Fold each of these.
Amino acid sequence: MSWQEERIDQNLYSQGEPDKWVYSTCNICSVGCGCYIAVKDEQIVGIKGNGEHPTNRGRLGPKRENQWQANQAPDRLTSPMIRNAQGLLEKATWDQAFELIVKKSKQSMKELGPNSISIYSTGQGFLEDYYTTAKIGRAGLQTHLLDANTRLCTATTEFCLLQSFGADGTPASSDDIDETDTLMLFGHNAAETGTVLFERIMDRKKGQASHI
């Protein structure tokens, strides 16, 4: 298939057509591919790429095509599990789980102080999420042990970008890949972690003005 032909990646597990396709954006990696989620009987049954999206133009990576299947996995946890006196995990309600968390947290703070509790958050949150987490941790629990993969991963990239280009955002866009003569990747295995981006780079390497 040439780059000029339309390509819509799809993984659909359903008897017949889905009840509806719901517009969405994949958030597994930082490429941000546009997609549609197939829904049947109020369950996710598939995914397909959005051919009109400027980033992926219908393409999806293997993670995007298959990640949704975990939603219906028979061994997926659907309720909290609490370890009993014999060391075995038992199903519990959300109220029981949160009551145990509160009890253990209070006990830890009383016996060892606020810094006996640490919070490790995600890099996929919004500003409001980080603000709330910081308020709970620093003002509420009074612990200074807050961290996230944003510091271990993203912060190093942002600092390098600031030093090199004076801004913490990338100085180019996906469209620039289609025009550039030189593209350098540092510490990024795009073939493994950003397959749609890698395919776009390969299109350009072949001398084609990528249409993806």
Amino acid sequence: MSATRRTIGHKEPMSVTVDLVIFTIRDDVLQVLLVERGNEPFAGCWALPGGYMRSNETLDGAARRELYEETGVDVGRLHLEQLRAYGDPGRDPRGRVVTVAYLALGPDLPAPVAGTDARSARWTAVASALDSGMELAFDHAVILADALEGARRRLEYTTVAAAFCVEPFTVSELRRVYEIIWGFPLDPSNFRRKVTRTEGFLEATGERRMLESGRPAALYRRGGAEALVPPLLRHFSDG
């Protein structure tokens, strides 16, 4: 036996969860789905929906399952992608838990139905959830703030804004998505010029929609491009 004794560190049990930041636009406001926790820890507090990953699931599979259980909406209707992982010690009083947060985006999603471990579920204005002193469970306020900035950044570099629109849609409806998520108005003519000249962003249907005033508006669906080239940067949006 070697004179040098090796100390093997204790392996702390660790669990993996998924948390979902589900954004939609309802009543012209960016809203997030929150659930009221029915169990400890944080019983009675509002939180992002989510749960433990099962032993036979992938991360994406767990996110899809939780998404359907919390919204009843087929994931095929939504844009779903990983945001990032959160694993700071102490983030969950039950023990060492690493969560992988997912960002889900969809147009005017229906009223949610609370899952089995939640008292209730509701859509909440993102601004209210972050700025009104609402205390979210765990580190969900941090995750929500990261998701909001992530969504804003994705609007600059990808075509994901169209995921908030029910097809077919007008350029004005798409512009309103940007204005709601970025939080400031955009010049209509400049926006139209940029998005219609970006290859693969929009695909014209050849149809028009009658408006209350003015000329009928051309209708579009999302094109095949995923990236915006050039990007539609926030600080150059009216330039």
Amino acid sequence: MAIVKGLAAIIGVAAILMGGLWALQGLDIVRWPASSFMLGDPEWTRNGAVLAGAGVLLLWFAGRR
């Protein structure tokens, strides 16, 4: 079970970071890469927030005893 929780923590952190990037690109705050189709698109703001939320849930699961 420790392996599963470790993997959940790693995937959770990756999901939070990726979701944050997507949300910031959707809000047009982070303009990297400059030719990204996600820039200024509210759909990617929502997708990023959902992915980051899933990452938080995975971290919560990984931290439970």
Amino acid sequence: MPLTPSVPARPDPAASHRAIENLIARYAELVDGGDFAGLGELLAGATFTGSGSPVSGADAIEEMFRRTLIVYGDGTPRTKHVTTNVIIELDDDTAAARSYVTVYQALPELPLQPIAVGRYHDRFACDGTSWRFTERRVHIDLVGDVSRHLRAAAG
């Protein structure tokens, strides 16, 4: 019997949508939990572009978050990232997504309030079994009091 290379099955659209939504939610969970090593792992194969130069690679992304975000005694930035209006466009084993993000923060001396509102533009790839980020671009449209969230704003 001749050997033929296996062709990965085309990703199921419904399962793909759910997997991509989970990646988007996982990002928020990791940021809000102060798990910057986890963010590096999640985005290891991606290029991250925020307010600075694009960053790639797990170690560089982890370090960028450590340099940028203020972390409090509980090990978190005391934020909640709420992602809404998620639009996912599939194309075989790649996908693009757009979504809105609202970042809330509260501290003993800071009442709960939105501190930033913006958009995520993401790209993903599927290796036949799982989806992963290949790009995350963050566009912040409205900024509130980020002095207790971003190191540059605090200094």
